[in-house]
Structure formats: structure tokens, C-alpha cells
Amino acid sequence: MVHWSPFVVSFKKRYPWVQLTGHAGNFKAGDYGKILKKFCECERQCLELLMKDSLCSYVPAYYGVVEREGEPYNQMEDLLAEFDSPSIMDCKMGIRTYLEEELVKAREKPKLRKDMYEKMIAVDPGAPTEEEHTQKAVLKPRYMQWRETLSSTATMGFRIEGIKKADGTCNTNFKKTKQKEQVMQALEDFVDGNSNVLKNYLSRLKDLRTALEKSDFFKAHEVIGNSLLFVHDKTEQAKVWMIDFGKTVKLHDEQTLNHRIPWVEGNREDGYLWGLDNLIDIISDMVKE
């Protein structure tokens, strides 16, 4: 099941938040122009640091922790408030969606998972080995690494998680969107062939890349499970923000990441900039055409 990022919701002014898929219980409407997301300490720390970083205009503004019905929430900017019936796309960035420490933990306590075997054969009945078919189960690290090879995560450093268009249509069927041509087709459909919207997205992505390359925060963090949220409307206003910092982890001591070189277990590289470079190249090609 695709878990949408917090902001990928259907929001109309003065109407309730409705989350498309995933963890509906994680969000509440805040005061006008704000949303509440179920509290995560890791995300709180990241957003507080980002408010003082060169990336601050590329992430939701953060307004601290609030309580609702005895539960803590991170309060942040509603990125959709300035749009009229927006179209929204969630792109998961990087060459993997699991932390290195998750892989290590899963190996330390190897446990055969029947649920992950079922998920695997639902997508590709030929994916499990003979042994895995016999035991009707797979180990978690094996599943985690297999899953990344299905989409463009492994081949391009990003994948489309889902698209919700202004007309209400919603598509989360991008698990096997792997080739450049498939990505281009999905993007073309997302913007309804509007080259001005594509150009506005391209400009924003290039500015984001410059900010990332200068960012002290970005250098010092392994950024996993983070999404780029694309939002545009019929006025051709188009913006992109980084969202979802629940698995963004600070590196040890003075270690820094390049975010472009290949991941080898132990180097903690996430491929974020490599993915962004590829996404920019694809949209540049589309604009030229």
C-alpha cells in the first residue's frame, strides 16, 4: 500500500481535510493555513533546524508542538492553502527508502515474513527464489532491497508515489514505473500537457538544487523517505517543497554526504541529488520538446 505524504490531501477552503490514502489518523486540520501532523521527535528536530537553514523556503514553515485531545502534534504550514483546486504529485526521493540502521536491525534478528512474501508474489510471482517459495516467506532485508528495484528508485533515484489531479482523479499505481518514458508520460498527464506549468516546476527544482548544495543541514543528514511535493493549479502557479522528515537522520561527528555517489552499505549515501539531477534532466527534455 502506498503511504501518501502528509500534505497529499484533498483540501478546499473551509472544508475538512480528507487524506487520500495511508494513515488518515496522522493528520488534523489546524488553524487556517496550518495542519497538524502526529508528533514525531525526529521530524520536530529536523524542522526546527531547517527553519534556520538555506532550505527554509523549500520546506513547510514549522510552528512547534501543540496538543489536541491529549495527543501531541507537529504544527506546520498548509502548503495547499494558496492554491485553488490544486493538482498534487508526491515524488519519493533517493535510491532507497530504508535507513542503513533498519537493514542492520533486520539482519541482527532475522525473521521470515509471510506477509512480505505475499506482497512480493502479488507484484511478481517469479520474484521469490525456490527456497522462498517453499517456505512461503522472505527475510525483511531481502524484501526491502527487492522492492526498490521495481520502480525508478534504484534506476533514477526517485519514484512517483501518487498523483491527485484537480478533477479528483487519483492514481497511486506507479509501483512499476521504471523507465524514463513511463515517467515522462506520468508527468505529461499530471500537468495536462501544459508546458508553462512544466517550466515553472523546472525553475523551482533548479533553485531547490542550488539551495540543497549550499545547505549545512543537507550535508550533515542521511535523508531517507523524504518526498518532493509538487502542487499547481489552473493559474499555472507551480511550487515544489520537501516534506516528510521522519526518517532523516543526523550523521556521526563531522561526516558529510555527497548525495550523488552510489550507495555502498556503510557510506550512508542516499542518492538524493542524483535523483533530483535526473528529474531535472527529464523535465528539461520535456520542455525542449
Could you describe the 3D structure shown?
There is one protein chain. This protein is globular. Helices cover 36% and strands 22% of the residues. It has helices at 41-50, 100-108, 114-123, 130-135, 140-150, 152-156, 180-190, 195-214, 216-219, 272-288, and strands at residues 9-10, 18-19, 27-29, 34-38, 62-68, 71-77, 87-93, 112-113, 138-139, 158-164, 170-171, 221-223, 227-232, 238-243, 248-250. The model is unreliable at 1-23 (pLDDT under 50).
Short note summarizing the structure:
This protein is an alpha+beta fold and 289 residues long. Helices cover 36% and strands 22% of the residues.
Keywords:
36% helix; globular; 10 helices; four-stranded antiparallel sheet; alpha+beta; disordered N terminus; 289 residues
Given the helix and strand composition, which structural class is it?
Answer: alpha+beta
If helices are DSSP runs of H or I spanning 4 or more residues, what is the number of helices? 10
> What's the order of the H and E elements?
EEEEHEEEHEHHEHHEEHHHEEEEH
Overall morphology: globular
Rg, alpha carbons: 19 Å
Residues in β-strands, percent: 15-25%
